[in-house]
Design brief:
The chain is an alpha+beta fold and about 500 residues long. It folds into two domains: about 280 residues, 2-methylcitrate dehydratase PrpD; about 140 residues, 2-methylcitrate dehydratase PrpD (60s Ribosomal Protein L30, Chain: A, 2-Layer Sandwich), CATH 3.30.1330.120. Helices cover about 45% and strands about 10% of the residues. Strand 3 and strand 4 form a beta hairpin. The relative contact order is 0.15.
Length: about 500
């Protein structure tokens, strides 16, 4: 692993391409090193995971709307769309499938200096593989590269502190992953990464205040934009350069400024891509920092007389406190009429419901009747978060044994007594009580696809996807969740 120092440079310096971060990312993406077996195994797990959460969201309005937009752009050979029969242009397939994968906030995550959902790289890379006739080995290589770039960027560059949305790391990662999939030269991938970054750097208001369905669309937009960037670069078109380090570039004006340095760790030439192994999926449909706290609430529930609770304080990291806790300053996080997207970014709400119900469900736990239940609202408003420097330190720790995304919960009762407990990582985390392996990914798929995908079609999909590295181009082209028909459009726009 090589740690690359990145900073802004004046235009007069003419920073050579080989010293620019976009070039270094392109070099990693296009390094044709063999994909390790354990990386390929995890790629299969995450394709299953994506399909599972997409199946559970197919009937939801934002997913229907994205799918109907995509179906207005048929193409041959095209790419498949979850929940449809017709094939569409790859960037539109990536759009529809990206929204389906992201809608329930239920797939994988990686947290470091910044945060991310690296599984968002899969829909656009798969769509391009299908449209261009690539086989399973190429697809695995592309997905592994996409994860590698996104994890490296998330480790090295914090976007959140400058209120930039994390899709700014996703666009370059997808462009690099597509470059690896197609075996493109570094020059083309370099240009595509620059374009993808430039067009997908947006503010994080999509995850602040009253959060809307755009939270699901934002990563799909990044994937779509990255496909278009690669297409333009393949036709000889260039990008802003140097896009990260330029005098008017991303670092100088959108991140830390001209005096700030970032360190991005990337594999050395010939070094295998293993970053996907550092990522982790979700057992619960909610923002990742709430995963461990849901598990703790489920364990505490039988011990707590909810009628005697005076207040609950969750001592946790800076990030959890300020993004999904009371430190955000968002009154919407305590509003029973708030959107589902807002509630899944409210750890006071999530902890209250998990404490009462002893479970968390991707639909029932967010129902309007559930969120407005008087006793739930009363408990919810007794819950606050507080930043604890020790939990912040552990959140950013690089030693897996020290890293933690949970917190310490103190429950004070009306008689003055207290109950305190803590949890470091979610049960499903690789170091948790019940780490996810292939068996759990398959079970998650079957549970979420139940009633959506017919049992025979579920078996066919799982049998096929578990052979992913060996799939032929024809098999990759048909890799989707089958349905009987596209059905009539339920929404209407320009297309």
């Amino acid at each position: 692993m090589i740690e690359h120092t990145v900073r802004s440079h004046p235009s007069a310096k003419r920073l050579p391409r080989e010293e620019q971060l976009a070039w270094k990312l392109a070099a990693v993406a296009t390094d044709a090193v063999e994909v390790p077996a354990e990386t390929a195994e995890m790629v299969v797990n995450r394709v299953i995971d994506n399909a599972a959460v997409a199946a559970a969201s197919l009937a939801r309005r934002p997913v229907r709307a994205a799918r109907e937009q995509a179906l207005c752009h048929p193409a041959t050979p095209g790419a498949t769309v979850f929940g449809a029969v017709a094939r569409v242009s790859p960037e539109w397939a990536a759009w529809a499938n990206g929204v389906a994968v992201r809608e329930l906030d239920f797939h994988d995550t990686f947290l470091a200096a910044d945060y991310s959902h690296p599984g968002d790289t899969i829909p656009p890379i798969l769509a391009v593989a299908q449209h261009t006739g690539r086989g399973g080995a190429d697809l695995v290589r592309g997905i592994a590269a996409g994860y590698e770039l996104q994890v490296a960027l998330v480790k090295g560059i914090c976007l959140h502190e400058h209120r930039i949305d994390h899709i700014a790391h996703l666009g370059p990662a997808v462009a690099g992953g597509i470059g690896a999939l197609l075996g493109l030269p570094a020059e083309i991938v370099y240009q595509a990464i620059g374009q993808a970054l430039h067009t997908t750097t947006t503010t994080r208001q999509s995850r602040k205040g009253e959060i809307s369905s755009w939270k699901a669309y934002a990563p799909a937009f990044a994937g779509k934009a990255a496909i278009e960037a690669v297409d333009r670069a393949m036709r000889g078109e260039g990008s802003p350069s140097p896009v990260y380090e330029g005098e008017d570039g991303v670092i100088a004006w959108l991140l830390g400024g001209s005096d700030t340095e970032y360190t991005v760790p990337l594999p050395a030439p010939g070094e295998a891509k293993r970053a996907i192994l550092d990522t982790y999926t979700k057992e619960h449909s909610a923002e990742y920092q709430s995963q461990a706290l849901i598990d703790l609430a489920r364990a505490l529930g039988p011990k707590v007389d909810l009628g005697r609770v005076r207040r609950i304080v969750i001592h946790t990291s800076h990030h959890t406190h300020h993004v999904i806790g009371s430190g955000s300053g968002d009154p919407q996080k305590y509003d029973p009429t708030a959107s589902r997207e807002t509630l899944d970014h409210s750890v006071p709400y999530i902890f209250a419901v998990a404490l009462e119900d002893g479970e968390w469900h991707h639909e029932r736990s967010y129902g309007r009747a559930r969120a407005t239940r008087p006793e739930t609202v009363a408990l919810w408003r007794k819950i606050s978060t507080a930043e604890d420097p020790q939990w912040t330190r552990r959140y950013h720790a690089t030693d897996p044994a020290q890293q933690a995304f949970g917190g310490r919960v103190e429950i004070e009762f009306t008689d003055g007594s207290t109950l305190t407990d803590e949890i470091a990582v979610a049960d499903a985390h690789p170091l948790g009580a019940r780490p996810f392996a292939r068996e759990q990914y398959l079970a998650k798929f079957r549970e979420l696809a139940d009633g959506v995908v017919k049992p025979a079609a579920q078996r066919e999909f799982l049998d096929t996807v578990q052979r992913l590295p060996a799939l032929t181009a024809r098999e990759v082209a048909e890799l989707t969740l089958p349905v009987s028909s596209d059905g009539p459009a339920a929404t209407k726009g320009i297309f």
